[in-house]
Amino acid sequence: MGLQQAGVHYSVSTWQQPCPAATSHERSALVEWVAKRILALGQGRLVVGIDGLTAAGKTSFGHELAEWISAAGRPVLRATLDDFKKPWKDRHLYDRESGEGYYRNAFDYDAVKRLLLGPCQSPEATSCVLCSIDPLTQQDHSSDAAPLTSDSVLIVDGVFAFRPEINGYWDFRLWLQVDSELSVQRGADRDQGWAGNDAESIHRNRYLVAERLYLQEVDPIPMMDVVIDNSSFASPRIVES
């Protein structure tokens, strides 16, 4: 691309996923197309949201976008909404384990706005926080700042990204579409390590129930700038743009 590569600043969270290796020319071309759409919005600070059912591939796609945009010369910050959940020590105060409880109570949107999205929208801010509470260690990282420049691109992935509480912060909205059964299957396979035999039940009876509530109450898909069918990692396709 002929430009000096800028850096990608990742969250300090231990809930990490590496940037995937390129799986196909088709996927690489689609990532490039989306990245160019984002960069065409202008030289100022940009905030990108990536949503979709659990295990739709949001984090991987966010990392791929970050690598391309960084290579094009723009500094990138990567965050996930999983790093902005309420601490487990407070779970006795509310229901977080049912599907509706997860949707209503798991995420700390005040922290998302105060630490992450608000600073990125403020021209005076020179830093933001990419992780509030580590979802694995429960360590508080709300004082760990990441640098913001005037042309930073923040890419945030996570379920419920376009709820009314935070929907107004995004400059670009992306939805990764997969079938609900594929979401459950992928998620259960991914989370066997920590959930064991309960993995499928957690995904079907908690996450999927929560996501159906979100789709019913918010109807986020018509808001999207781009909708991508990500059922096949090697052959994603644009559904709407």
Describe it.
With 241 residues, this protein is of the alpha/beta class. It has a single domain, classed as P-loop containing nucleotide triphosphate hydrolases (Rossmann fold), CATH 3.40.50. Helices cover 35% and strands 16% of the residues. It has 7 helices and 9 strands; from the N terminus they run βαβαβααββββαααββ. A 7-stranded mixed beta sheet has the order 1-3-6-2-7-8-9, with helices on both faces. It has a two-stranded antiparallel sheet with strand order 4-5. Strand 8 and strand 9 form a beta hairpin. Helix 3 packs across helix 7 and helix 5 crosses helix 7. The mean pLDDT is 94.
Average pLDDT, all residues: 94
Number of helical stretches of at least 4 residues: 7
Count of spatially separate domains = 1
Beta-strand portion reads: 15-25%
Distance between the termini: 24 Å
Encode the helix/strand succession as letters.
EHEHEHHEEEEHHHEE
Name given to the CATH homologous superfamily: P-loop containing nucleotide triphosphate hydrolases
Rounded radius of gyration (Å): 17 Å
**Which stretches of 5+ consecutive residues score pLDDT under 50?**
none
Assign the CATH class: Alpha Beta
Shape: globular
Oligomer: single chain
| Largest sheet entry | 7 strands, mixed
Please give the CATH architecture.
3-Layer(aba) Sandwich
- Strands across the major sheet, in which order? 1-3-6-2-7-8-9
CATH topology: Rossmann fold
Q: What portion of residues is helical? A: 25-40%
The strand count comes to 9
Overall SS class: alpha/beta
